[in-house]
Amino acid sequence: MGDIGMPMFPFAKMFRGAPMQIAKDVAAKIAAEQELSAKAKQIGEFIAFGPYVNVKLDKSAEAARILSRINTEGSSYGTLDSDGKAHCAGRRVMIEFSSPNTNKPLHLGHLRNDALGESVSRILKKAGAEVYKVNIINNRGVHICKSMLAYKLFHEAKGETPQTLGMKGDHFVGQCYVEFDKYSKQHPEVLKEAEEMLVKWEAGDSEVRALWQKMNDWTLKGVQETYDRTGVSFDKLYFESETYLKGKDEILKGLEKGIFFKAEDGSVRVDVTEAVGKGKDGEDHEKVLLRKDGTSVYITQDIGTAISRHSDWAFNQMVYVVASEQIFHFKVLFYILKKLGFDWAEKLYHLSYGMVNLPTGRMKSREGTVVDADDLIDSLRDDALAAIKEKGREEEVGDAAAVAEKVALSALHYYLLQVSPVKDMVFNPAESLSFNGNTGPYLQYMGARIASILRKAEEAGEKPADAEAAAKLLTAPEEWELLRRIGEYPTVIARAADNFDASVVTSYLYDLAKLFAKFYQQCPILGAEDAALKSARLALAKATLRVLHEAMELVLVPFLERM
After folding, report:
1. Neighbours of 136 (CB within 10 A)
2. CA-wise closest residue to 487 among 32, 44, 77
3. Cβ neighbours for 396, distance < 8 A, ≥ 6 positions apart
4. pTM of the entire predicted model
């Protein structure tokens, strides 16, 4: 019935007519008016079909346009619209993600956060936005002191360090945190000791500060190794130890202006009912911003940090990648910043995501049941390497260990990103590593297969045809389906960028890979019946590979030339 369908239902009320009749009138008007008819012929045939105006595109002209754009625009394909403009031009987006604690290593939940933040950053850049990636390191608080106290109790006297024990620093500090939790169940008095240590830290006690710095350095070095391994990076790190006092002055200024008020108990508060609704008791909802003793609360810090960040890098949009458990917090934060009169507060966005667990259930870091990011990737890598060896492909793939690492990362990232962020999910390691179906390794396999076809053609001295020549010969239904999907890539990037949703790209990648498999099965490339058709299909394969390769990078799936 056509390649594009435009429903006339939305116009029924406007024109006071049946959608079917409106469709007939629109098609007739296009055919009757000379200027409209001339433009229409450049696109294809416009047909009224029921309540729709359908378009049968001029396939040859459209195929030539798509292939020509890919050849001409190169790495910019997907960034520019049909008028040559970047979809997100003029947008300066700051993205906060990861936010690790320095008392434990990154875990599976962090991996989903990191994948979302890094992927959305890459998608926005691809769409033409300026992007600045930031990370707030949670390196102060009683939970940090718990690890420090455990170190003093169980390791300091023996001179044990991550180096002497042959451990990553973040794993060692995380072990201390687990040790504290177990010890505190038999010796509850140590909880008070941890609180006293925090008081000393805030007072600047030199001994406590020295231990805190040493253990922070151990953790951050280990965490950075995991970031490097997974392809995650940041433009700037912020530390809670440097930001936790920020915001107090802004609250006092707001109090003077009447934006906030002083409650009967002496605390400074704001009415946030407009943002979050009334409380369970039906009363207005108030948020404390300064305690009665004048000290800050957590949201006070976030207010100050947001203002400081805008001073550091003048964004016109800020995205917080934080779990859905914090939806209430961000509603309040954004509301307060708007009340303070910051125009950029209108463009603050909470990219919330659901819980991620293993089939065995929820994880609890203080009980030691959390799945460390490194351990999970190691396990995926080992399973991938075993599969490569089982198939006897070590020599074919080259460095089998390096390939297994990339397969592991593709399995992990694609599985985490293919689900809409807002949904809770279960990460199934075995499913993620499958080379069949909707997985990262399947995409890698398809990319390697196309790369192999193009290599063999080049070795035989065969070259892809130019866009015009190829378009005239690519007439099979499978060729047209693949071409049309490649042509939709800029629209996919725009939609993913607008919605901060990497699953739009993962879904597109799977469709593209399936369409190429169907094309490859029905339309022989190297075995085509004549040289011209072979060159045309090589041009289509080359264009597919370019889009597949670039889109895979956007969702943190490493590309493999051989697999």
Report:
1. 21
2. 77
3. 562
4. 0.91
